[in-house]
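Researcher: Structure for this, please.
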Amino acid sequence: MAMLLRRFGGRNAPPSEEIAIRRKTRCSYRKTMRVLQKQTAEHAATSQQQQAPQDAATADKEARDKMHKLVFAEIIDTERKYLEDLYTLIIYFVRPLRMKFADNYTAEWKVIQLQFGTVESIFEVNTDFINEVTLKLNGPEPDTALGSTFVSWVEHLHYYGVFCNQQEMTTQKIKEFLKSNSQFRLFISRCKTTTGQKLDIYDYLVKPFQRILKYPLLLRELKKYTDESHPDYGNLYKALELIEKTVDCINKSVSNSENMKKMLAINNSIVGHKHMNLVHTNRRFVMEGNLVKVSAKGKSQTVHCFLFNDMFITCKPKMGSKYQLSGNVLLSKIDVESIENITKELSDPIKVIRKDKVVNDPTQTPAYFFLCCASSEEKNKWLTTFTCATNLGRSTQTGSLFLNCV
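Model: Predicted structure, token format:
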């Protein structure tokens, strides 16, 4: 203050000037403080903005790491539980049954025995899998334990393909044995009691099928919470790709197998043909059901219809265990369309136009017949399915057929 007084006249300065100097000094001070406060606030805000993304990124990484560990643990824990179930199946059902019925050489028992052998093979390769993962977890590169093991282990999944293809037939044969063989039925009951569990042999036999479908889901979830910088990310990516392809092949194989069985059963249930063989590698069964067929002249009859991806078959109602063939036509030779009710009795009809029945006189109406459904819902289902079957048939052509259409 003395310095400021001397600058503006010292002690000889008038009181009014001194007051003005003091006011000016206080004003300058306040302005300086406001500037400093503003700068401090801006700096603090900038620091918080810079710190916030870092904190969010850290929190996100911690959350992902936590989920990664949880999914990893779930894979290991569920795998061990799965192996325990397979062990129970083998020790309490497979081996006792094999010893008890060692003298049974029927074809039906051989089917069951084949599936039992596949279960033992699956148990062996899955035990090797979990042992290798455990070994790697205790080795020099524990972070790559799971993905790398999955990659090398995928080649053993062919056992699951064999198992899934035989599963339906095995279940059917076991049911037949339980129904017809009292000794087998009693022994199975004792085996179940020995396990101390409520599950029966069917519950255990479905485990491999359930597990093979679970692997892609678990790996996809683990990959989701694995950073691309993680040492096992590449292995998980490759393992997921390989397992998805394998499971897809198994699903297609099972679907083809079931489709073949269905077509063979239909083929064997139809009489009145000499050269028809429905079983074809590219043919797919789509739908069946009872409809009322009405000719262009108004004659009606109830028919049982079979729709495939390339053809449509009509049969007379079932007589005992057989159908009597009444006609068939390629889907490429017909068009279907929805029309209004013919009569009160013949409602919800579908018009089927026969493109293969050439009319010499172009002024005449093309050959056609009607398929009447029980309800509008059934009609819509058949119309939609006809369209889907036709589209499916274009991608899986089977060539020409062998019967004249009636």
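Researcher: Any notable elements?
Model: The chain has ten helices and eight strands. Confidence is low (pLDDT under 50) at residues 1-14, 397-406.
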